[in-house]
Request: fold
Amino acid sequence: MKRTKQVNIGVVGCGYWGPNLIRNFRSLSGCHVKLACDVDPKRLLHLKQLYPEIKAISDFEELVKDPEIHGICIATPVWSHFELAKKSLEAGKHTFVEKPLASNVSQCKELVELADNRGLILMTGHTFIYSTPVRRIKEIINAGDIGKILYISSQRMNLGLFQTDINTAWDLAPHDISIILYILEIPVTSVNCQGRAHINPGIEDVTNMSLMFSNGEFATIQNSWLDPNKVRRMTFVGSRRMILYDDNEPLEKIKIYDKRVEVPPHYDTFAEFHYSYHYGDMYIPYLKQVEPLKVQCEHFLDCIRTGQEPLSSGSEGLRVVEVLEAASESLKRDGAKVEISKITQEISNLQTKKYAAL
Reply:
């Protein structure tokens, strides 16, 4: 498809996030949002009042069978992602799926293989890796400005929105996990996760997750639906400097602290041993304010036109779900360490047997 050709988009799911996708796709040149699909007539009526030119439908089959639709965006509950994405890909449509890509590793693998076999774009809605602050943090770390990463700490908490089909880790942690994987570019080897369900039995509303990486680096992720304040904070601690990323800040989202602790390289007695604490300046880099969702939507269109692999491809969505599935297993084991490689291998073996039986 040539760069100038119009891309026709259909969106399924017009509840919380779908209208944001529609708004951004409508604002992009060379894109036409032709269809919007939802099972709730009230949501469709509201959408028609906002965008009269968009055809509102309740039957997903009508969307996938429309020969003029090039790409389908799925913004529905997580439990429905796999079925809808599979139908979309089987119909030959480029497919965008909100995070997380699917409910388990096996489903993600099937979607990735289906997209690859049919030469279609499969993209996951990891919005934050398209944000200016996260991309700037990656540049700073890759340039070696903060030294060796010692650890990453992330907090994503608020009061609600309570979900009934997924816990707080599956709801909030995909943002943190996708950011960390994007910045470090190394695989997670094991996960520990503990949590508690206080409101809905069996659905943890508070979770604490620890990630270990193949090079020995370490990250913690704290998620909650029961915090009085909305917190969106990540700290990147390096051997030379530290970065604080607060997404709630309207302008100064990144602050770089020239702070570190140094241990004397040689000492013969305890009296000679002294930690050296370095306190330097704090620097706030300038960031151009651009809506990450708009950048993400434009990237999806570019991938459809050029055939390039999305930054948040189906494979990246799979990597995030691998971590989430390991976290779920760790929760069942009361926080015991779960190695991702073993889970992935077990799933791969089951998937191989499944395809061999077809």
In short: Residues 350 and 356 are 10 Å apart (CA to CA).
